[in-house]
Amino acid sequence: MSGDATTGAGDALSGLDERAAARRLDDLAARIAAANRAYFQDDAPDITDAAYDALKRELLALEARFPHLVKPDSPTAQIGAEPAEGFSKITHAERMLSLANAFDAADVADFVTAIRRYLGLATDAPLSLTAEPKIDGLSLSLRYEEGRLISAATRGDGETGENVTANARTIAQIPQRIAGAPAVLEVRGEVYMSHADFAALNARQSASGGKIFANPRNAAAGSLRQLDAEITRARPLKFFAYGWGQLSAPLASTQSDAIARLAAMGFPTNPWMRRCDTLEAMLAHYALIEDQRAMLGYDVDGVVYKIDDLALQARLGLRSTTPRWAIAHKFPAQLAWTRLEAIDIQVGRTGALSPVARLAPVTVGGVVVSNATLHNEDYIAGRDARGGPIRDGKDIRVGDWVQVYRAGDVIPKIADVDLSRRPADAQPFVFPTHCPECGSEALREEGDAVRRCTGGLICPAQAVEKLKHFVSRAAFDIEGLGARQVEAFYTDGWIKEPADIFELRAKFGSGLQQLRNREGWGEKSAQNLFDAIDDRRRIGLGRVIFALGIRHVGEVAANDLARHFTSWRAFIDCVERASLEPAAHAPDARARKPLLPQSPAWAEITGIDGIGEAVALALTSTLSQVAERASIDRLIAHLDVQAPPARASSGSPVVGLTVVFTGTLEKMTRAEAKARAESLGAKVAGSVSAKTDLLIAGPGAGSKAAKAAELGIRIIDEDGWLTLIKGIDAANGPGDG
Fold first, then answer.
1. What is the C-alpha to C-alpha distance for residues 681 and 658, in angstroms, rounded to an integer?
2. Last residue of a domain, one of 55, 70, 85
3. CA atoms of 342 and 77, how far apart (whole Å)
4. Are the CB atoms for 191 and 239 separated by under 8 Å?
5. Of the residues 136, 179, 331, 550, which has the fewest C-beta atoms closer than 10 A?
6. Is residue 83 part of a domain?
7. Strands 353-364, 335-347: parallel, antiparallel or unpaired by DSSP?
8. Containing H/E element for 362?
9. Which CATH number covers residue 504?
10. What does pTM read for this prediction?
11. Which strand (E) or helix (H) includes residue 677?
12. Residue 641: phi, psi to the nearest 5?
């Protein structure tokens, strides 16, 4: 761009007053946005490069003359953004969900059957779904208010993501302004890189001595998460919209019509999306996309099916992290052969000894793989948990040529062994009976597929893995304290248990000299770490329970427990009673099933919908250990543990109530009723107790109704329940995935 051209544009604008300049700015922004859509989205440029450059020059000149009229979403903001020191966080107004997976036609059929069962639909009742390619990219949420792009955030942990607004503004396919949209619109989609652009990027990186990316997804993710938005602008990123989050008004009544409306607003949507009225049509479209996979020009790893009717989506609702109304049908794993160079044993946070295959690096599905899981000692030996043969009974030995696949295109695993290439001196692998980290005996209980170290707190591997789990994303998620930092701090003796993390600031004092002297740390980064730790002193109960790393207590179970007990004190008191009450007794650890105590506290824990005996036993056995409990108490002393947020809007008549369903429900399925109650803020229990507030009894109600009457608990029928909750909006806007 020449200086004369810019000056000429400025001279032409010299006669404009402020009102005319504002109108011209809007006109130029709209024309440039339309040109970007034509070029990047439609692949059909409607103006020449020279004409496009002239529009940009005029816009620059006008903004220079009237700087107070420059808007944050100006096309000029897509170029040369100031480098940020780090990403701030954005809390999603609606959670960004992941998807459950299906790996074959039977899984998809089960998904459709489960939906019909949940909704009470007959097998011949109409049920339409959409089918679209699952783009292998990076999820992004774009928030528009009054038609203007306000913010952009990555998925993060589903609740909180990284603020990448400046970077998203550099992606030409993302509109800065839209027309005909609700006042508030969160568009969810995928940032990706085409195969051609990826190859060209790697060629440029190689020529300049820069980083070579392993695959287009990594390139896209790395490009979007640059602290310097100018780098992002130089990368050829693209975007597909597939759903939405928060809405001030519905987009449409169906998924397919809502996506069509997003397309009309200017968002790129996938042309391979189809509406399917039968299971056969869904599977046929899956087969077509799989057949054309190599010709699409971008990476896809499956097909996503979604219920088309948004009213049915709302009825189906959400699980903890996935919607019931959608599933990802993954493409078959991709295969490759390579040499097994070693088998290492890793010790996890629960003491599990996990074998890992160290492989001669091989590319599988575009990703270089050098490690793969071997599951357990039975899998290495060529048998299943019942002693039956797998891989025709072939064991796995160091030196073997093995077939590697990526399950769901994610976790590398070993599928087969080529015995014809086995070295003559290859020996059967002998699984260790003692922990390789601490030397303690490693026992395998009857009925358990895994051998576990008995060292407990004296085992450094367990301690380190517990600490890594503690700071993981779904747990405390402390900015600047990841797995690598945990290992280093543990080795230096700075942290040995979670409570030590919250004493780091006091330990180092105001000078921060010890931490500052470490490679990669300065005074600012050390201060940022301590501030991030302090930010996590106030934390939700579900995260705390999950962070403890108790066996069988995953994220879903932790949140179920948190919603039931609402406070740490109530939770720990109940677990203590379940451990100490006379009716409780220790189960036989060698038995396949524990002998179940039936104390009131035990019954309360196992009565929580979704919590079983295995979780209750893990809680009581872990939290009754003196050393473990003392460590947890030291941690809790540093925290302000918060009750989980209400899952319903204010005005729900059942927030905080414990409800039980019994008998036959005639207007909704039992699963739908439970999900509806939980979405309104109620706690759903599986049994009646003195803590039950409400029993919903259908025809055929038996002992539960009798016990509720005996305890004086309020009992209503299904119609009474529907009347009670009538008019309450239980479901947030669906459309994510």
1. 10
2. 70
3. 52
4. yes
5. 179
6. no
7. antiparallel
8. strand 353-364
9. 1.10.150.20
10. 0.55
11. helix 670-679
12. -80, 125
